[in-house]
Amino acid sequence: MSLVFGFLVLVSHGPDPSTGTKSVPHPGKSATVMAVNSEQSMMLLAAGVPQAWNLATADPKTGVVKKKLNQVKFPRDAEIRTMVPLQGGGYLIAPTFGFAVLDKDLSVSNRIEVGYLNRAAVNKDQTLLAWTSFSRNPETVIYDLKKKTVKWRIQDNDIVGEILFLRDDLLLTAGFNGVFLMDTKTEKKKQISKRGPHTIAFHPPSNLVALGESFGQLTLLNLQTFLEISLKGHDADITALAFSPDGTFLVSATRAPPFVDNELRVWDVTNKAMMKRAKQGAESRFVLFLDDGKRFTTGQLDKAGNVELYLLADFTNALPK
Q1: Contact, 308 vs 54, CB < 8 A?
Q2: Most buried of 101, 190, 273, 318 (most Cβ within 10 A)?
């Protein structure tokens, strides 16, 4: 395990007078996935290998935070697809070859290979792990983390790009063929949308799912009524979504065509209206809220190795409830 030191910078960007949007420096690359521990003291960011950022050491004047980068050793290169902070400390991560448990010092304590894993999710009490696989015979699997055995497995004719637990016995999956509810007791699927999103976000208290698709198509789907509402404004493919913890705001990020700026936008969910937008250099593939929704990050890394945290109030002029 090797250690490298750098900086995490909290920035508050003002409006760009020429466009009315918020401007940001042009970064080099971005994280594929991120997670923050329950104490809000450490953020784990994967842009290749997992990097640990110590959020507790923020300088209140400069916003500079010291980070410690741990390069977790795997038997072969693998993109991290899912990362979940564990209640007892450490993280559960899902690279493409399977999943592994990282201790608090980010050393690998348990590793299980399951084939080519695409996306994974953990239930609320962190006893079950669900994953989808890319293979000749795509499948969805539920694994018992305590018993360390496969609890349920079903073959699927769809390549599932997103998966999440609604309940222990109910999954929501999204792929090329649409959005489905999957009952793990009966192994039956119910299609609730014909859309094929690249990315999704879920806010449990409001039963809203945000669906991000190609060509800027952004939709709010109500899981009680199955009604869909479009949020118009993006033109490019939507690659990352996240609700603020109180469900008041939604952050969306895009992958633009060549010579066009990637961007992120903040939406007022109640009024279905865009608040403000910001230019992004690299494509953002993940959005993570911190501090009960006061800050968020898209995991953009510049050439100096800095990561930017945005103040939500700069986009909304109001803090979460």
Answers
A1: no
A2: 101
Interval 87-142: pLDDT, tens: 877 888 887 777 888 887 777 777 777 777 888 899 999 999 998 877 667 788 89
Q: Report residue 11 as tokens.
A: 């920035």
Place of tokens 């977790």: 72
What are the CB-based long-range contacts (under 8 Å, 24+) for 256-259?
256/283
Torsion of CA 56, 57, 59, 63, to 10 degrees: -70
CA distance readout (Å), 171 to 1, 26, 49, 178, 182: 36, 38, 29, 14, 5
Q: Which amino acid is at 196?
A: G
**What is d(CA 271, CA 65) in angstroms, rounded to the nearest whole number?**
35
Q: Is residue 315 within 8 Å of 266, Cβ to Cβ? A: yes
Yes or no: say if 296 and 286 are a contact pair by the CB < 8 Å rule. Answer: no
**Tokens, residue 119:** 């996306």
